[in-house]
Amino acid sequence: MPQRCLVHARRGLPFALYRDGVKKAGQEPIQGAFERIPGLQLCEAELARLDPTDTAALQELLAASERAFAAITRKLPAERFPHTRRYVLGLVEDGLAYLRHLLATGQRLPLSTNRLESLWSRVLPRLKQIGRRWSASGALHMLAACLVHALHPERYAEVEAAIRGQAFPTVAILITSLETAWAS
């Protein structure tokens, strides 16, 4: 199950409403209901404070979020809000994947892809220049650094030093497909 970036999930609602012809002034009631979905309002620091062993609290957070999603969905009839309804229904599953994953495994998932996207925006232009500015191995090293920075930010300085040839940490990157990568 994918985990959608929650920062972008919150930013995407006004665009979905606009596609359904709802002007900015008329978006407030639906955006207000969306902002009351507790599972979508957490930041990384709040996620870090959640106790993975407190399953009752996590289940209540998930249940409250699903109830709030159901309430907002009832406010969005399919004939009037086809784009917004589809957007919100998609978030019910993949926007709360981090809570389901935390309940099932006790492991946290990142809530935002901003860190990775920031790095990627600097790397992508250079990747297009492989052979002219970067070697293929240099591009793979940078991709590994991006993955570590996104998945294990606390180890990024260590990995960056290794890429620069200054240190040799024990970092493993396994890219199993275009959608799946593991870093440890």
Concise synopsis of the structure shown:
The protein is mainly alpha-helical. The protein has two domains: 100 residues; 70 residues, no CATH class. The model has no long low-confidence stretch (mean pLDDT 77).
Chain-wise SSE layout:
Elements lengths: L5 H14 L8 H8 L8 H6 L5 H20 L7 H13 L2 H9 L8 H14 L8 H16 L4 H8 L9 E3 L5 E3 L1
Question: What report would you give on this structure?
Answer:
The protein has 9 helices and 2 strands; from the N terminus they run αααααααααββ. Helix content is 59%, strand content 3%. The model has no long low-confidence stretch (mean pLDDT 77). The chain is globular, with a radius of gyration of 20 Å. With 184 residues, the protein is mostly helical. The protein has 2 domains: 6-105; 114-183, no CATH class. It has a two-stranded antiparallel ribbon with strand order 1-2.
DSSP E strands, number: 2
Oligomer: single chain
Amino- and carboxy-terminal Cα gap: 21 Å
The outline comes out as: globular
List the total number of helices. Answer: 9
As a percent range, the share of strand residues is under 5%
Mean pLDDT: 77
Question: Low-confidence spans: pLDDT under 50, at least 5 residues?
Answer: none
Provide key terms for this protein.
single chain; mainly alpha; 2 domains; 9 helices
